[in-house]
Amino acid sequence: MFTDSNQAGEAVDAEKGAAAGEEVVRFHLRGASAMVHFESCAKIEVESPRGKVLVVPRANVFQRRLFEAYETLLAVGVPEIRLLGLKIRQCGGTTAACHLLYHHAQRFRSEMLVLADVRANAAAMLRKMRTFSSHDSFPWNNALRPTKERMEWANGSVVEITSAEASNPGISRTRSAVLFSEACKYPRGGEKDDKGIMASVLPSVNRLGIAESTPEGASGWFYEQWHGSRELPGALTLDEYLAGLKRGERSPGNGWVKVFAAWYEFAENARPVGEGERERILRTLTVRERRGMGAYGWTVEQVAWRRDTLARVCGGSEDLFDEYYPEDEVGCFLASGRPRFDMASVVAMERLTHGVTVEEGHLDVQEEGVVFTPDGGGYAPIQMWERPRVGCRYLLWCDPATGAEQTEGRDPDAYSIGVIRDGYTMGGVVRKPRVVARVRPPCTEESDRIARYIVGLSRFYGECMVVLEVNMGLHILERIKDAGLPLYKREVVDPYDRKTRRYMYGWKLKDRDQRRALIDCLALAIRDEAVEIPCPHILKEARNFIVNKSGREEARSGCHDDDITGLAMGLYCLGSATLYRSPMRRRRKPADWGEWRRWPNG
């Protein structure tokens, strides 16, 4: 209760002052905080019954985590911010990343690059940036001067927008910030390779790097940065990264902070249900749904939304749902890209390779036999995981390139040459078949040297059986025959009388069904983990071996499958493997043995 009018007036003035102060704070927050600016001053286009309309957005859980990571690292003074965003389908991740770059350009004078996966998406991102700039209600006093493929503001900030389809994208100059959009969908292998693109752009980025994508396949630059590899650690969560900074690490992990939100963390991914439908859903829960409710706390409303999306968007495919709407940061990579091989088994085999030591060296063919000479430095053409063992059976495969003229250029065809040991039992312990040696990939040398590799490896493993595909390998078949090595023979029917059967050298793929049988053999062995594959290069090809839209089993675009075909051929013919016996040294006679005469008494 106020006692007089002066006190009442002072109170009103104080309230107005407090309100004005709060407004000043909010004003400065809009300029300083990317998320506050996004939710108060920015506008985005959304679909409505009347067409596209402009609205002020409300950040979802993924967008908030992306903004939080950026603002936290900026506040603690991290000199080079690296954000890796793994998102679900249509969650606005690209929109938030574009806004981060836009807000960064308004606050700091920056040379920036936006690199989309394809040209159409690059054009869409250019429209997003123009919309942010044209309808921004915050008074930056920073006029936009747009051109066809770039945006330039009065403060000197520039954003150039291109795609991974362009020739040498983004390598023209140093950048303050770069956004790699849909990085999982960049080309892999070949002349345009995601690792090559990143290697050419990232070293010139000195302030902010953002890579965001929906998952696609357990391979490529994005996957290796997220999970790490044999050579490098993986990305860290924001809390893990900050803990590393506290310990004094300059760049914890691999320098990237990962941002992820599962589908059930989005408030909009739920559908209201009536009491009758609730009881029906609870009665018909699948094993997967029960696990989700127990492990992640899915509600009945979320299960109802998941069932609707699974039927309407994913055609009933659980794998497709896991790719579009991941529930964790591991399964989404394993489910995406329609892999032919069981990705869980492939990843498990990859983990085992981290603790396996490989010997690298040269094979020297001598009179007494073949000698393996380890070579720790330089180029060693032979990789070996297991030396030959007496009593074991070995087989060498060779999937040849198409010839010297096809082993040239930036993405050449290559030979796949390796040795596989058959399984055996010793002392009650069962040993699986195992890849024990190979010629270092990619092998694109001339046929004479290839023949020497085959001869050396075969003789080192006891002159083991050689399975050579002869569709395109006739140029080295004669050299192997001249060396006297055991060559695999196939049974064929005489094309004239259709009755006589004869045998011909080498393996030959006759049709698509035979190739499918070959791949099925390897797929079954990988799924059951019935074969040991310590070679990272073979496992990399296994991750990139998919079933395309027409149903053909082949390598992902820009990748190779030489090792897959070669190993599948070796595994399929493993019954023809030959036994390794203890090598016997022959006693050499003196050079003048022919001139010796026997003593009369014998």
TrEMBL record:
Reading the lineage from the top rank, the first entry is Bacteria
> Which Gene3D superfamilies does the entry link to?
3.30.420.240, P-loop containing nucleotide triphosphate hydrolases
- Please give the InterPro entries that the UniProt record associates with this protein: P-loop_NTPase
What's the name of the protein?
A: Terminase family protein
State the species of origin.
Prosthecobacter fusiformis
